Amino acid sequence: MKLNVTRSQAAAVGILLLAVVLVAGKLFISVNIIKFHTPNHLFSQDTIFYFRDYLEKIGAIVTLDEKAQEITVQTGLDSYYLEIKTDSTQGIPIYVNNTYIGKTPVKKRLSAGKYVVVAKNPGHVSSIRYLTLRPETASIKQIILPVDQKNYEGFLDEIILLGYKPIRVMDYYNHVPITKKTIVLRHDVDVSAEDALAMAKIEHLRGVKSTYYFRWGTADPEVLKEVRALGHEVGLHYETLADYSLQYHLKSAQDITPAVKQELRRRLKSEIAHFRQQFGKVYTIVSHGAEENVRLGVTNYQAIMAGEDPHDYGIIGTAYGPIIQHFTYMSDSGGIWEPFPYPKLEESNAGPFYILIHPIHWASGLN
Fold first, then answer.
1. Could you give the CA distance from residue 309 to residue 56 in angstroms, rounded to a whole number?
2. Residue 56, SS3?
3. In Å, how far from its chain's centre is CA 68?
4. 232, 208 Cβ separation under 8 angstroms
5. pLDDT tens figures, 308-324
6. Cβ-based neighbours of 216, under 8 Å, separated by 6 or more
C-alpha cells in the first residue's frame, strides 16, 4: 500500500512538472519564471528532487522552498550545471545559499552569480566553498568539498601523530620556542561552559594545554576552576563595544568617537579587573563578535585594543592583533572550517599554526 502511495505521489508531481516543462519549452527563447505550490506530502526526496533534476538537465533553473511549499522554475537563462561532491564520503547534505539541494553527489544548475556552497556533515565540523560563476568561468563543472568526519579526540590524535605541539596563547607571550610544529590552540566559549569542560578534559588526557576564553554569560565559576586545574589558560571573551552599543543605541561606526573609545577602554579595564577578582589570574583576552559588531562594521578589538599596550590593562597580550601575523590561521567559526585544516597540517613546512575551535561545534562528539 505504501508503494502505491509513493507512485501516486510521483505521478501527481510528474504530471504537474511535465506541464511546466511543456510551457517552458514553448517559451524557452526568453527568460521566464514559473512558480507554483505543491502540498507538503508531495514535497519529498522521492518526488520533488527527482523531477527537479530532470528539469535542470534540460536547462531550467529550479529553486525549492520547502517551508513555503513553493517551486520556482526559471528558463531562458545562461546557466552552469555543477556536480558537487565530498572528498571521501557520500550522502552529505549540501546547501547552496542556505537552501538544501540534496545529498552528495548532487548536481545543481545555477545562473551566473555568487554562491556559498556548504557541506553539513551532521555531528561534525563541515566545509564551505565561495563560488562566483561568470561566463569566463564556465569551465567549472565540478566542486569537491572536504568534510571533516573526525570528532575532537580524532582531531587531537591526528595533530599529535603529525608531530605538532599545541601551546596556550599565554605561552606565546611568555616566549615559548616556536617551531614549524607549533599550534597555538584557542577556544572561544560562546554558548556552553559544559562543552568547554568536556573538551578540556579530552585535551588533558592527551597532555595538551590550550586557552579557553569565556563570555560573561558562559563564565561558570566551577567550570573555570576545573579548566584551570587541568592546566589550561582561562581568559575573558569580551564584548564591551557590543554591550555599549546596545545601551546607547549606536547607529554606525561614526558614533564610535574618540570619547567613546576612551569610555570603552575604561570599561574593559574594569571588566578585566572584575574577571580576575572572580575567577583568578587573567593573562590574555580576546574580543567576541556579536551581531552589534557586524552591524557597526567594527570589532571589539578594533574599537578598543588596537594600538593599545596590553600591560595597561593588566594583561600580557591579546589573542587578536599582531600575534596572528606569525602563524597560519584556521578557524571553525560558524561550524565551518575555513580553511579546511588537514591538507595544510600534513605539509611539512606549512606551520606554525594558530587554530581557533569553538566547543559548541563539536558538542555531539564530546560526551
1. 58
2. helix
3. 26
4. no
5. 999 999 999 999 999 99
6. none
Q: What burial class does residue 221 get, using C-beta atoms within 10 Å of its C-beta: 0-12 exposed, 13-18 middle, 19+ buried?
A: exposed
pLDDT (tens digit, 9 = 90+) per residue, 94-132?
A: 999 888 888 999 988 888 888 888 888 765 667 777 788
DSSP state of 284: E
CB atoms within 10 A of CB 155: 21
Condensed to tens digits (0 to 9), the pLDDT of residues 31-54 reads 577 776 666 555 565 566 666 776
Residue 148 and residue 357 in contact, taking contact as beta carbons nearer than 8 Å: no
Q: From residue 106, give the alpha-carbon distance in Å to each of 76, 271, 331.
A: 23, 50, 27
If residue 183 lies in a helix (H) or strand (E), which one and from where to where?
strand 182-189
Helices (H), the chain: 2-26, 48-57, 152-161, 169-173, 193-205, 221-229, 240-248, 258-279, 291-296, 300, 341-345
In sign, the C-alpha dihedral spanning 247, 251, 252, 253 is negative
Give pairs for 159-163: CB < 8 Å, separation 24+. 159/183, 159/345, 160/206, 160/208, 162/345, 162/346
Work out the percent of the chain whose per-residue pLDDT is above 90.
Answer: 44
- pTM as predicted: 0.69
Could you identify the residue written with the cell 572572580? 278
Task: Let me know: does 188 contact 218? Beta carbons within 8 Å.
Answer: no
Q: Which amino acid is at 192?
A: S
| Bond from prior residue into 341 cis (ω within 30 degrees of 0) | no
Residue 350 C-alpha cell reads as: 606549512
**Residue 141 contacts residue 82 (beta carbons within 8 Å):** yes
